[in-house]
Write a structure and sequence with these properties.
Blueprint lengths: L8 E5 L7 H13 L4 E4 L4 H4 L9 H12 L3 E5 L7 H6 L26 H18 L5 E5 L11 H15 L2 H8 L32 H27 L7 E2 L11 H4 L7 E3 L8 H14 L6 E4 L18 H11 L4 E5 L25 H16 L12 E4 L2 H9 L9 H15 L3 E4 L10 E4 L9 H10 L3 E5 L21 H4 L1 E8 L6 E5 L2 E14 L3 E5 L9 E8 L2 E6 L1 E2 L2 H15 L5 E2 L4 E8 L2 E8 L5 E5 L3 E3 L5 E2 L5 E3 L4 E6 L1
Parallel strand pairs: 1-2, 1-8, 2-3, 3-4, 4-5, 6-7, 9-10, 9-11, 11-12, 12-18
Antiparallel strand pairs: 13-15, 14-15, 15-19, 16-17, 17-18, 20-23, 21-22, 22-27, 23-26, 24-25, 24-27
Length: 669
């Protein structure tokens, strides 16, 4: 039986091991006053729990558990394995990583273990199992949190050996591997598996994403993600042995390149992420990462595992969240699918690099701070919302594809331009729907397309396996597909599909791309669509329509008159091709028109900086309105509704007032 959770959980990382015990009681009193009902414990306590090779000491954690349990807190129990103890590094140097420049690291920092270290695997598994066995009697543990923000790469000789094994499993033979990597180029043919080395600054690379052999680098990325996943699964299984019914997860970092989060998702019981937007991160960018996280497990709700209540100390400029901003960003998470609102951290530490990071309880040690009061007000509000949004879904008719392997491949590509940034291109599409107030699902290649009317696959450079067939079926059956420049070029090994770009998408799109022009940042072309001019930036494809109809053409340069936007009727559907990267107004106008054509309704009428989202559960629909601006605004929705935060009633189409940084949670009738 999963533990019963009947409200949005509120709390976060709590590190009492850094404090004398008399502080703990005071913490419990204050945190309860702030409405906190969940603490994440034990994230970085490995050295405390295992002082040496043979001895484990759980006494302090026992007392912490007793303290938080008596205070009525739920617990998200971490396994502490994101930072190994110093003695372990001294006695077992195999646990230390080798970095991208080939330096063997010494003890220090965190996220510091080699993913294939036998010492790490042995002791992390043992610790996870011991924790699960020891604390299984606590029915307030509602989730397990394995390690923390998995991230770092290793280039040691053991990882190199494991890479060879991984390659043997993937390719079967050296012939297949030589073909997949096109090793005839620069005389790289491998005659023995032992000749294969890790790609880094000592071998194929001249910078983190600049490589001479894309195939090798891409496989190493996959391999490292897989190795970390293997470590995660080792702990997962050790935990499940003792507490099979408690869900297990790890916290991702959202905009994070190194882990293929979608490939990990099947092994998480629920998805979770840490949201740390910079003070100038646009709201749609945060929204997109929430939606990506919701998409990891096919639209199921997720946990907001961390955010700062006020300030992150590691930014160049540590700007404060303005009054109301923390609340508004917390609701934004819930609006996109979060079932928790959690923070790093409960109490500010006194030493080392996070002592100036925001916390509910500041160094002053009292409740009498702006941040504490704002947290306490939010804590109170969340109690009143009860379970209405828990496990609710968002039923979108539009999907945007986001694929990590495609991201890696684009980042490694030598050409057409280093200005091309995959997530930034995806965001341009996401932003249009955000501003149109139309909900979107962020999907991966494995997800079913049949429930969508519109699928957008920006810069689908890599066509993995038969993904073209899936797109083909989707369009033939009446779906609308939109893709862009630099799509369909290569297969999953980064080998070019011959016969003209966009390769396997050529039929669906009805075009042939002959060349691709990259524009320096200060230069742009433009095109005219429906009487308006829009910029053409970063890259411009030079293409010929085959069966496609031309909707817009370039205005300048030697390719003036060549198509910039095409549509191809294919089966019962249509496939659009946007041959360049444009400005927000283009995507907005283009998709506004398409939403009308496809009869996809918006959630309401609102200014662009008032975000609208929906979460649905049974017959309950809740529309969230979030005013990201510092001015009061008005908006409308299409049905009668009650604001669950204020009790106000509104009629359909009535002008609804929303405060600056304000939130409305509207249960529709
Ligand atoms: C991450 C980590 C936390 C903490 C915060 C600070 O999300 O998981 O341990 O370091 O960053 O922002
Ligand atoms: Zn290693």
């Amino acid at each position: 039986m999963e533990k019963i959770i009947d409200k949005i959980l509120f709390g976060g990382d709590y590190n009492p091991e850094q404090w004398p015990e008399d502080v703990w009681q005071e913490d419990m009193r204050m945190l309860k006053d702030a409405g906190v009902d969940i603490v994440t414990l034990n994230v970085f306590s490995w050295a405390m729990l295992q002082p040496n090779e043979f001895f484990y000491d759980f006494r302090k954690l026992d007392r912490i558990m007793q303290c938080v349990t008596e205070a009525g807190m739920k617990v998200c129990m971490a396994t502490s394995t994101a930072a190994h103890p110093a003695w372990m590094a001294r006695r077992h140097p195999d646990i230390l990583r080798v970095d991208f420049d080939g330096h063997k690291r010494k003890f220090g920092s965190r996220h510091n273990s080699c993913p294939s270290s036998p010492t790490y695997r042995k002791y992390s598994k043992r610790l996870a199992g011991k924790l699960a066995r020891r604390y299984r009697k606590y029915d307030n543990i509602v989730a397990w949190h394995v390690s923390n923000e998995y991230s770092t790469d290793c280039y040691c000789e053991r990882c190199e050996r494991n890479f060879r094994k991984w390659l043997k499993r993937r390719y079967g033979s050296l012939e297949a591997l030589n073909a997949a990597w096109n090793t005839a180029f620069w005389g790289h043919k491998f005659y023995s598996w032992k000749e294969i080395v890790a790609p880094n600054n000592l071998s194929e690379h001249f910078g983190y994403t600049r490589t001479c052999f894309q195939g090798i680098s891409l496989d190493y990325r996959r391999f490292q993600s897989d190795m970390l996943l293997r470590d995660y699964r080792t702990e997962y299984n050790a935990i499940k042995k003792y507490t099979p019914n408690i869900p297990v997860t790890t916290n991702f970092m959202g905009y994070h390149y190194q882990i293929d989060q979608k490939a990990w998702a099947p092994y998480l019981d629920f998805a979770a992420w840490d949201n740390y937007p910079a003070c100038d991160s646009p709201e749609w960018s945060v929204a997109m990462w929430h939606d990506i996280t919701r998409g990891l497990k096919g639209g199921r709700s997720f946990w907001l595992m961390e955010q700062t209540p006020s300030v992150s100390n590691w930014n160049r400029y540590c700007a404060l969240k303005r009054p109301g901003e923390m609340r508004e960003l917390s609701y934004q998470a819930v609006a996109h699918g979060a079932d928790t609102v959690m923070f790093f951290q409960m109490r500010r530490s006194i030493g080392a690099c996070e002592k100036y990071h925001g916390a509910i309880i500041d160094h002053v040690g009292t409740e009498n701070t702006r941040v504490f009061k704002e947290c306490a007000e939010l804590g109170e509000e969340l109690k009143n919302l009860k379970a209405v949004t828990l496990a609710a879904r968002t039923n979108s008719r539009v999907a945007i594809l986001f694929d990590w392997e495609n991201w890696w491949a684009i980042s490694y590509s030598a050409g057409p331009t280093t200005e091309l940034n995959y997530p930034e291109e995806v965001k341009k599409f996401y932003r249009a729907f955000y501003e149109l107030h139309i909900p979107v699902d962020m999907i991966g290649c494995e997800d079913d397309l049949s429930k969508y009317d519109l699928v957008i696959a920006p810069v689908l450079y890599m066509i993995k396996g038969n993904y073209d067939v899936k797109l083909n079926d989707f369009v033939k059956r009446g779906g609308h597909l939109v893709t862009t420049f630099f799509s369909g070029y290569v297969n999953e090994n980064d080998l070019v599909t011959l016969g003209g770009y966009p390769g396997k998408l050529r039929d669906i799109l009805g075009i042939w791309v002959e060349e691709i022009d990259a524009l320096p940042a200060e230069k742009e072309n433009n095109f005219t669509w429906e009487g308006l001019d829009y910029s053409a930036k970063i890259v411009c494809d030079l293409l010929h329509p085959e069966t496609a109809e031309v909707l817009a053409s370039y205005n300048n340069d030697f390719y003036a008159g060549m198509p910039a936007l095409t549509v191809n009727e294919y089966g019962d559907g249509k496939a659009y091709y946007i041959a360049t990267s444009s400005d927000p107004d283009f995507y907005y106008n283009f998709f506004e028109r398409m939403a009308v054509e496809l009869n996809i309704p918006s959630l309401g009428e609102a200014p662009k900086d008032v975000e609208l989202t929906i979460r649905c559960k049974g017959s309950n629909n809740v529309i969230f309105a979030l005013n990201h601006s510092f001015e009061h605004k008005c908006f409308k929705i299409w049905s009668d509704a009650t604001d669950l935060l204020t009790g106000e009633e509104f009629r359909a189409n009535e002008e609804i007032w929303i405060d600056n940084m304000g939130v409305r949670v509207l249960k529709t009738r």
